[in-house]
Amino acid sequence: MRELISFIIAFILITILNIFLRKSNKNFGNKVSWQHYFFRYMFILYLVVALTQVIGFPSLEKWQRLSRLNRPIFNPNINLVPFKDGIQISSILNIIFFMPFGFLLPTLWKRYRTLWTTLYQGILFSIIIEISQLFVPYRATDVDDLIMNTIGTICGWIVFNIMSKVFHKFANKTVNQPFSSDRIVTKFEPYLYIVIAIISSFLG
């Protein structure tokens, strides 16, 4: 139920954002394809499912429950030693989990078709996730997860580049081609998606 509420909130907020961006693109004579909008919703769906189902992102409801039980909200369990227990199956799952992130960024935005910009965004999102684990009982903030998430982002980016060479025309339709006038909006658009997913997951 929480996941459904979170997605409904995210869907509404993303639709509002898309309406605003669509008007902005029209003003600059920049036509955005339906394929781009389709992958936008795929991206927010991935983020919400990742935060609510996979990560166990903290929520207002959980914090209220902990408060009623007189239990602390802040639950630090930190590992800063890489692979001290070896490589676990969860490490491989983290790579798979972050591959859609590395794939969808360059699918949607041209600036992320450079590895370093995608890598930076993947590290940032992973850091946000690991910090959030400090506020979830029985979860760990683990440097192994940060490393594996980063590898997953790179793998997703590589998969995109292979597929974009095969489906070159389709890849050009999914990407937003920003005009110089709306470059600032496009630059911060991926951050807005992450913020919306976090807000939706917390309130859901």
From TrEMBL:
Protein name: VanZ family protein
Record key words, sorted: Membrane, Transmembrane, Transmembrane helix
NCBIfam families: vanZ_1
InterPro entries attached to this UniProt entry: Teicoplanin_resist-assoc, VanZ-like
Membrane-traversing stretches: 6-21, 41-60, 87-106, 118-140, 146-163, 184-203
Signal peptide: none
Boundaries of every VanZ-like domain copy: 43-163
Coiled-coil region(s): none
Entry annotated with the keyword Zinc: no
Organism for this UniProt entry: Clostridium algidicarnis
